[in-house]
Amino acid sequence: xxxxxxxxxxxxxxxxxxxxxxxxxxxxxxxxxxxxxxxxxxxxxxxxxxxxxxxxxxxxxxxxxxxxxxxxxxxxxxxxxxxxxxxxxxxxxxxxxxxxxxxxxxxxxxxxxxxxxxxxxxxxxxxxxxxxxxxxxxxxxxxxxxxxxxxxxxxxxxxxxxxxxxxxxxxxxxxxxxxxxxxxxxxxxxxxxxxxxxxxxxxxxxxxxxxxxxxxxxxxxxxxxxxxxxxxxxxxxxxxxxxxxxxxxxxxxxxxxxxxxxxxxxxxxxxxxxxxxxxxxxxxxxxxxxxxxxxxxxxxxxxxxxxxxxxxxxxxxxxxxxxxxxxxxxxxxxxxxxxxxx
Length: 342
Fold this sequence. Notes:
This protein has 342 residues and is an alpha/beta fold. It has 13 helices and eight strands. Helix content is 53%, strand content 11%. The chain has an eight-stranded mixed β-sheet with strand order 3-2-4-1-5-6-7-8, with helices on both faces. α5 crosses α12, α9 (206-219) packs parallel to α10 and α10 crosses α11 (271-283).
């Protein structure tokens, strides 16, 4: 096509000269703010609940005394932080009160924020900032476990979406062969995000599906494998045997697989999530956590307690139904959303 003299083509670098650096940074800040807004909105009910309780705990008090600490203990426990983690936080605050001798009750919010931030730092790896997988062996195999109804299959679909957005080649394995709905749901996610799903007929051996999935990933040079498993919380021995068999079979194809065992928990269930974490960590070696359904609930404190009590990094948090509502967990952003940015 000939170029018109009246409408000459303008080189791209000339166009970019008209877009100054401040404008570019403004656009980038909009995108980053969108992600933060999702987190802020998802934790809004938890934040409102915690601050209302904190206000009542310090009402009429000029300093942090035993009564304030007793009230704070109740605030944390009723916010689903958990008893053990609550006692740990209270002890740390008591030590600060003893060291500083006098602390204004109005400072309690800042003190609590500091201690929760430190606690999360002790149990979470801040190196992960996006949906990336470690350098090294391919395929990177993630075995996903959790009871029915926690959003396990949905989380797998969202992860597949994000990994594909990063440029990774993804394969899904429908090893929950006991529920037709689970297989169909994963197949639907596969169609939605355009990634292959390896599956067999209902009632098939889950380990066989896992074997086929990893084999397919190797044959197609895939980067990431996500394998769904049955969500039954049956007796510990049965669960342990089933997961051990799946891992052993995958290990025959890729020595050392899986690279990660991710437990998905429903944050809105509060203390029930603690019990599920306890059962699964007894049954298998869980290496990461995804906590879903934090939007619309005042039980966001469960993230703090589970991270602390099980010493397992929280990798992802779910804040809604859309694929973009699954976020990489950031201790800093979580605390900022819970306590405010100031």
